[in-house]
């Protein structure tokens, strides 16, 4: 960490700052600038709060050299983490995992049909929304517990672990009992109370990147979960918010090699929410695999125009199956199974 | 609402869509385009889900003409809403309200001192964080209930209603009992479960705009609270995320006249979090008042360099007092008291 | 095009607007809204200026249904455009073209060596910067004409057409004579005078997307060139500006399927400038091919750490060659040669 | 400047980098990190190219402590620059200058009328577009030289210096002769050839911030002009591009205090282009004055609905006059005349 103090900082202020840092077991080296006083801090700087250091009127700025996350950092954990989702392994050199299913769970028979179709096509985890984060209070909010129950039944029947979004702490027990992979949605990526609670379980967590969150903040949210004792975190990119209007969000595929370099956690791509448009999903899915992703999570529906939510981005089942076939060929080129 | 269907859409698909909309009591008018089939939908379109309509492979796009919010919409409620925060009125032609206090509540004596300083300077609501949303799990997380208690005591002593951030539903009772104005933070602007719960109370709510949320989404979140029966919503802008690096966020002051035109709800500006830099707070506060804001929420601390969080953006008490004086003069020019 | 007028708009204002549009040969249909007067405009709306229509105080908003570009629009030109760059064909079902070379041209011998290496590795167009857009006036500004000469000599020797960036109209003759593919850089994407001038030539143009430009604005800039009579436009995505800090820019790969759907022009990806980091280039290149790109433009240098500019994003020649090999395998999966 | 090298960097690579920097007359200090080798560079680091230093595979990152601009930097030029625009002084403690006029120059009589109205209302510089940067090749492109002539005549008649946008080097002589303040538009902020050419004149320059450019890049573009010998640069903020859709751009008013702190150059605000909506212009103008701006540039038109361009954001003359009156009162509160 590099701290730059103003040239006019009185010596006693400088001494006070240096001492407060050294008291925490870190070392401070001075580099005497011509226009500034610059200090280097060596040691475990994750325990320092940069905004607190910046508070002194004599401090010009504070810059980190090493990342503020530790448990999620590949520097300290060189080996890939492989997360076991009720038997389906995600990450490392394991086969690429495709998760599929409808945006919203709609009925028991529909859920059964969708799980069957996903499994037949080669999907290995069944996704579906029972509690739905909707921008409008007047939109369909999901079937809730009933939806979770339909998913759990269908998942067992077809041998597919299930993933669904948890929005609120008071449903945590229900999810721990019935869901194999707990999704934390983009809007809750910095709902720190929720992160802390899932961190106390051992359940695998699919942590979506927030719409306007940096990769560093995303890894810090993973760190929250891991700091609680739960290291089973899978990261999921689902597009970020930009000025572009032809897509719902902008899919940032560069996260794949970046996450692989900076972290040991698995990384999965969600091209459905990222693009918001089924016509773009196949191209972005193949691109994600070529880039080295550990998995995909894709919306598919047997009748997209009549889906209860987000039908515009749902693949028809035949498109879903075709995508997996094509994806398998791309996977082979980059040395992975699917 | 305008729905554009592809030229090649079969007549039966067109009929089906038109019928499904008319069944909801809306009227559909056709405009026959040269390259598209364009339909206009007339009536209460807030009940339609644009993403669901877009799901048909024959639909090219769906555009709203009128806003998707109703209760928060000035069109249907021309008169300004004035929110009464335990006696302090915010909005309409009421005097501009300055809310002040430290980022984090630190101790009982410090809280008492800060409340006294805020009141003496002309602040009318006392702010402070007891539950803190921190990016790092290793940073100070706030005093919790203890902090709320210190605030409640100090607020009563100096006659200042208090505002503090609620992060989790399980603390709602504590807030309803002890806090005068419940803050929903930027990271929770789309924590819909939380919005629904505060919507069931009658407590005034300070709803911060999310870092990457449009004004429309912000008003939709207000709509969530109001749809539950709680119309006491005050909007608060605290900066949005952009590419600029010299400020923590970019303060979007144009929200002031926009919110005034589109909604009847009061609008308050938080220049401390928006800029992240105390050297910018005075200029942005005066600008906010000149733009027509109904209030300000400002961080102030008796010893910013030793504040437990966000000291870099805290004003010294003398700066806070000076700002109120200057702000009062600007307020007069735009026809308001302060 | 849909025009929404306020409910209180006087009839004479409505009539005036309708007439002014009909005078241009377009048809106007009215849809009587409950809260607004909404009109649909049918015909060639590219000749209407939406901002001019919005100028009336009685107009609430103006929304386009069809795109504002015509020559670049696939609706009116269903067949893929294939651009012939001095014998190397780009677009349609032609083999994917890899363009390679250093960021800056440095010396005659170095240019010769780089062209040889690019050709040997399978690159088919030689890239290099002679006139350099640099953020700092104190940074190396390129060799200018001398650099163009070196490139032209080396390109001929190794049978590679050359591409280089044109920054100013006064160098246009030099480029028309010596360069096979004229690059318009991201910073000049809306330098309309420059676009008009290259539009008067028949030279192929590589039009980079501006850092903060929408796909629609990009296609409008292509339209500028095409409206002048030059239809040899190749689009090039090189990353957009977002809040993310771990990459120089955010590569928006979704442009590949979007451009293919909306336009008939070829689309090429520049992963070097998009990421700014050589460690990310291979993954993003393979992803671009999987997504369906018609080509890649990649920086490579025989000694990146001593490159005169942008060494951090340059591939070593062996990396460049390896990338082409891998890329060829991916290309085959998506049905293309390389 | 702080350079972080990987722990595994061989000593000879480290030595080579240190030597190359010391050869330029700078000093290098080492801070031995636990996980990295960190170096501090002291001296005039504006001559170093950070991207070139990052090129070594052993360098992890490079961070600047001091700004990369020198001539525009207040550290080296503490006194405010006051730019004299043919007698009208802008900056320092001079009265706030309001520039007004139509978006596009339309005819001789209209120009005369507009200049008269601007002068009568208290505007002190007359603005107008003769060469127009339009997104669409099919939109009105301006009257060109004829428009400049109309402006020059009207400006002289009413004693108002004139400001207009220069888009291309080949019109520079025309502008030097006829225009008092040369505007460099947002789209050309990084048209470095154009910046260099205006840098060779002594004409005052109004440098608009690019739509997606950081304040640092903006000051670097000012540096380009100043490095050529022309120190008469006025900065102009006109909104940046964000995800928000209710405004054309997002006006970033925090630039006012930031520019005042980091630079000595005057700063002017353009609320018309920033918001794109006349209903927001007054509020944003008053806010800009309250924030400390040195001037405003505002579009006004005697008949906005029939303006040839951008009528939606043009004020009616009475609104323009009212704004100046109100602005004068705000100016007084912040200690300035207008």
UniProtKB/TrEMBL annotation, chains A, B, C, D:
Q: What does the UniProt keyword field contain? A: Transferase
InterPro entries documented for this protein: Aldolase_TIM (IPR013785), Class-I_DAHP_synthase (IPR052899), DAHP1/KDSA (IPR006218), DAHP_snth_FXD (IPR041071), DAHP_syn_2 (IPR006268)
Which Pfam family, an example, fits this chain?
Answer: DAHP_snth_FXD
UniProt superkingdom: Bacteria
Q: Does the keyword Transmembrane helix apply?
A: no
Q: Which GO terms describe its biological process?
A: aromatic amino acid family biosynthetic process
Entry EC number(s):
2.5.1.54
Molecular-function annotations in GO = 3-deoxy-7-phosphoheptulonate synthase activity; aldehyde-lyase activity
Name of the protein in its database record: 3-deoxy-7-phosphoheptulonate synthase
């Amino acid at each position: 960490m590099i701290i730059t103090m103003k040239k006019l900082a009185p010596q006693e202020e400088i001494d006070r700052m240096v001492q407060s840092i050294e008291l925490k077991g870190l070392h401070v080296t001075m580099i005497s600038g011509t226009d500034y006083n610059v200090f280097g801090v060596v040691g475990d700087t994750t325990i320092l709060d940069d905004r607190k250091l910046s508070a002194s009127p004599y401090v010009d700025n504070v810059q980190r050299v090493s990342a503020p996350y530790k448990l999620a950092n590949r520097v300290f954990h060189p080996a890939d983490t492989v997360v076991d989702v009720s038997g389906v392994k995600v990450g490392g050199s394991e086969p690429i995992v495709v998760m599929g299913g409808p945006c919203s769970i709609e009925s028991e028979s529909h859920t059964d049909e969708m799980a069957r179709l996903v499994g037949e096509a080669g999907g290995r985890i069944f996704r579906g929304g029972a509690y739905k984060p909707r921008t409008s209070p007047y939109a369909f909010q999901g079937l809730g517990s009933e939806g979770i129950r339909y998913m759990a039944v269908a998942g067992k029947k077809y041998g597919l672990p299930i993933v669904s979004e948890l929005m609120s702490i008071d449903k945590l027990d229900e999810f721990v009992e019935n869901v194999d992979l707990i999704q934390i949605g983009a809007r809750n990526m910095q709902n720190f109370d929720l992160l802390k609670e899932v961190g106390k379980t051992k359940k695998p967590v699919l942590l979506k990147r927030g719409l306007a969150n940096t990769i560093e903040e995303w890894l810090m949210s993973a760190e929250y979960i891991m700091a609680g004792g739960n290291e089973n975190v899978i990261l999921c990119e689902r597009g970020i918010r930009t000025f572009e209007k032809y897509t719902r969000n902008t899919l940032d595929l560069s996260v794949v090699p970046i996450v692989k370099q900076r972290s040991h956690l698995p990384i999965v791509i969600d091209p459905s929410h990222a693009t918001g448009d089924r016509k773009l999903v196949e191209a972005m899915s193949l691109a994600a695999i070529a880039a080295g992703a550990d998995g995909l999570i894709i919306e598919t529906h047997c009748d997209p125009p009549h889906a209860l939510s987000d039908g515009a981005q749902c693949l028809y089942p035949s498109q879903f199956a075709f995508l997996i076939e094509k994806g398998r060929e791309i996977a082979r080129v980059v040395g992975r199974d699917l």
